[in-house]
Amino acid sequence: MLKSSFSVRSWLRANTRFQSIMGSVLAVTNPGQYQAGMNMLKALKDNPNLLREPEEIVKVDECWSNPFSGVAVISNRETPTHKDIYGRNEWYDVLATMGTHPTIPFHLPGIKTTLAYSPRTIVALCGRILSHSVDAIPCGDRACFAWFMRENVRSYLNIVPGAPSTLHSVLMPN
Length: 174
Known about the structure:
Elements: H1 6-14, H2 16-29, H3 31-46, H4 55-61, E1 70-75, E2 79-82, E3 93-99, E4 104-108, E5 113-117, E6 121-125, E7 132-134, E8 142-148, H5 151-157, H6 167-171
Antiparallel strand pairs: 1-8, 2-7, 3-6, 3-8, 4-5, 4-7
Helix pairs in contact: 2-3
């Protein structure tokens, strides 16, 4: 989760605004998950010896500015239909796509829905519940940044997962 190379840390430092935007999307869509993520990061920072390589938290803490436990970068490829099995049912993954590609379909086959997936689109979805896929791009370039949280990290740190998102929790936060 926290292991990173110098080039990854450089990228994270250069993209703190992007990280903050993704964290803000989560704070709005699922305040309980956002708080759980922030609590996980604080627990690791306060207790670095919980990690096999405690020095990694010091390196990453200076450049990781969001509540997620990881990010995957998917570049110029089709994403077959799948579910993200390592989170919790009520947790959101936040996807951001960018590039020069034309609008392509973002499929949610379980609910028989297809969304227009254009550059600069952000999608928050419960990826453990909703199967999803993205078609190959016919031309141009596309990068998808998939921000996620891992249940095994939360469980290991013994952090309360946070209440599921509800209309009330989104419209009337504490």
